[in-house]
Write a structure and sequence with these properties.
By secondary structure, this protein is an all-alpha fold. It is built from 19 helices and no strands. α7 (120-153) crosses α15 (354-372) and α11 (242-250) packs across α14. The radius of gyration is 21 Å and the shape is globular.
Length: 467
């Protein structure tokens, strides 16, 4: 209990102190936000700050800090360190700087920012990879809830898949304040309330949490902490996916000063949710081996249901399953909306007219439908690495901006170097890639970090002009 509360307190202090430092480095100005400069009644709509905060939180969270944290808990209490320090010094920095950079450029998507700071040649590769990732995630989070509803109601999977994609089409097409702005803050509150309720009940039970906290690797199969924990726990620590979501809220902020609570603060709150679910995974089961067996037996969604049922009873389990379904669907539709905005920025196509939105919505939803009809399990296994590699590129992107602007680029350079090492080590270790073993992967990761650090300092002075 004490360790959990200390971890939460550290995250809150990180927001108060380090968040203020990051905001100071960025430099808040009185410039009008895109929502006030370019209101179009569709994507650029000024919204109350509490709504943008809750929507941002739900968009970047979804099931990420639940499933990822539970899988990270298999490694033991040491995973909490990555959630806390990764969130403060990497994830929240990543989200704040990428969100504010989008705000600076009229709420443009990550595709536009990559073209602006890395050159036109990179935008084609970035467009393909980012849109492919968004469609893949959207397809997964259409098929998964459709399958769960089908099993609960004993009805056709295809009917529910059609219903969900129909909803996605409407949510992608409509102005952001009609569905997302109206209902998503409520869904975000449901995620928070259910998580806090579960951890509160856990600590009233005779379950001794973290009596023997240590830095040891408790994974039954002794899979290496580095780099696997840093890829397994993405949402809740740092996730490249967030950079695809932040531009949506950058188009809805009414003042630059709200960027810190909306972008940095939402990531800190997601870190707290990840702490809750990692703690639940560690404390609810007898040991890491029991948690791993549970995951293998009934997948992560089943573990969520088992924990909720065990702490809240059968009704609680049913409510949790419904929450998982809702969270999956809300993640899916924002993926498709983000894909529409990315394509629109790439094509320089205004979205204030219905025909333009309609054509792009049909195109991306068709891609999502196709992906949902094939077996994407193998492709999905690459998603964890790609997600963290995208976070690495985004950190390098904001580092280039800070350097060009003569601002303190160290706040993003250090996490960029670290995530470069994580991505390189994962490629070296994982059987899907080079499969060279943990020892070689560790050294490769360290060497990449050092080379990235030295390389940027050397090359930036020659190739990156100050503005």
């Amino acid at each position: 209990m004490i360790l959990f509360l200390l971890a939460c307190l550290t995250l809150i202090c990180g927001y108060i102190f380090y968040g203020a430092l990051v905001e100071k480095v960025w430099g808040i100005t009185k410039t009008q936000t895109p929502a006030l400069k370019h209101p179009d009644g569709v994507d650029y709509i000024p919204m109350p700050t509490y709504k943008t905060f809750l929507i941002q939180f739900l968009n970047i969270a979804g099931l990420g800090p639940v499933f990822g944290a539970l899988l990270g808990a298999i490694y033991g209490p040491v995973c909490l360190l990555w959630i806390v320090f990764g969130c403060i010094f990497a994830g929240a920095v990543h989200d704040y700087l990428s969100g504010m950079l989008s705000l600076k450029h009229d709420g443009k998507s990550l595709i536009f920012l990559i073209e602006t700071y890395f050159g036109k040649r990179t935008k084609y590769v970035a467009l393909f990879l980012l849109v492919a990732m968004l469609l893949l995630v959207g397809a997964i989070f259409a098929k998964s809830p459709a399958s769960m509803i089908s099993q609960l109601t004993h009805t056709s999977l295809w009917i529910w898949l059609a219903v969900i994609f129909g909803y996605y089409f409407i949510a992608t097409l409509l102005p952001i304040d009609k569905l997302i702005g109206r209902f998503y803050p409520l869904f975000a509150l449901c995620l928070l309330i259910s998580s806090v309720l579960l951890i509160s009940i856990l600590f009233t039970q005779n379950i001794p949490p973290f009596l023997n906290f240590d830095l040891a690797n408790h994974h039954p199969n002794k899979l290496p902490l580095f780099p696997l924990v840093f890829v397994t726990i993405a949402c809740g620590a740092i996730s490249g996916f967030h950079a695809t979501q932040s531009p949506m809220m950058a188009r809805c902020l009414k003042d630059q000063k709200f960027g810190r609570p909306v972008f940095y603060g939402a990531m800190i709150l997601e870190g707290i949710v990840a702490l809750i679910w990692a703690t639940l995974g560690i404390c609810f089961y007898e040991n890491s081996g029991s948690l791993l067996v549970a995951v293998q037996r009934m997948d992560t969604g089943g573990v969520v249901s088992e924990i909720a049922t065990g702490l809240l009873g059968s009704n609680g389990g049913l409510i949790t399953i419904a929450s998982v379904i809702i969270l999956a669907i809300t993640t899916g539709d924002t993926c498709f909306r983000s894909a529409r905005l990315s394509l629109a920025d790439f094509l320089r196509l205004s979205q204030d007219k219905l025909p333009a939105r309609l054509s792009l919505s049909i195109l991306i939803l068709a891609g999502g439908v196709v992906l949902s009809l094939i077996n994407v399990s193998t492709i999905w296994r690459y998603f964890g690495w790609f997600n963290q590699t995208l976070a690495m590129f985004t950190l390098w992107l904001v580092t280039v901006y800070l350097y060009k602007s003569k601002k303190c680029f160290w706040i993003s350079l250090i996490p960029a170097c670290f995530m470069s090492g994580v991505s390189g080590a994962y490629v070296t270790y994982d059987p899907l890639f080079l499969n060279l073993g943990a020892n070689i992967a560790h050294w490769v990761g360290v060497v990449i970090m050092i080379l990235a650090f030295i390389g940027f300092l050397c090359l930036s002075r020659k190739t990156i002009p100050h503005e």
